[in-house]
Amino acid sequence: MFITLAAAGLVSYRQASIRSRLDEQIKLLDEQAEKDARDIEFGTFDTQDVDTFITNVDRQVSSLEQRKSANEVVLANQNYFSAEELESAKADLEETNQMLDKYGPEREFMALAWIDYNVLRQDSKSVDLYIDFVKNTSEFAYLLQKSLAGSEQPVYVHTGQIIGMQGCSGVCTGTHLHLVTTVDGVEVDPCTLLPLTPLTIWGSKSVCGVPASKIAWPFYLPWIVTQEFGVISPVVHDVHNALDIIDREYAPVLAAHDGWIYTERRDCTGAVICNSGAANIVKICTQKDCRAGITTEYWHLAWMVEER
């Protein structure tokens, strides 16, 4: 009996010791996660430094990974935790994984939203902000330069670079991109220049584009065409001179081709619908004077490189 009790006591002591070490491990992970959260709260949103923001985004990801590790510690040692603790860890692990999944592919969208609020809307800089990034990473490069719009030396951009964010500025009834394409000064259907791609047009499967394309699609993700070129627009009651396409909220809009970039805020005061007082428009021209070659216009942007 004494041996049995002693053995039981030893097992109990070992369990308590292991549980204590597990608790300490989880405590350290939680403390680090809390510290990172404080750093983010007080270190990110009071600064205009994009590099600092990116660093803190990575800290938040690290914090989530620590939460994930803490939950995995619990679930990997089920004998030392109650059913309630296990259920809580399982639920928190699922939530943490979902958040990590969101941070990965959408980290660039978050950065754009942050820049839109903290830099552009606050009007804290007298310079333009141009963002470029490596897709699905937080490696951003940024270039600050004065008087981009109407500059005698406009910036030259390349296919796939971010030029703005999908929005609904100007005469607009819902978030989308109004893509106008011009060849040698004549407006043409964007589908005659874009890559041949199956897509959704007003809920029905269709195609848009040509095999020998001249420009690229301005979104990363699958898109939906909400209004085609040449139809009568129900909003302005005139021929629609563009292709209206949509992507997810805050989707970055990409340059469809190489060229010189110009920006404009087109006033819409007096219109029945006038969001933000004007439409944010980016124009990219293959020729610097925009008189010949291909020109693309990107309308209704929520954010764009703009003259301050």
Automatic annotation (TrEMBL):
Entries under InterPro entries matching the protein: Dup_hybrid_motif (IPR011055)
Highest taxon above the source species: Bacteria
Protein name: M23 family metallopeptidase
Lineage, highest ranks first: Bacteria, Candidatus Dojkabacteria
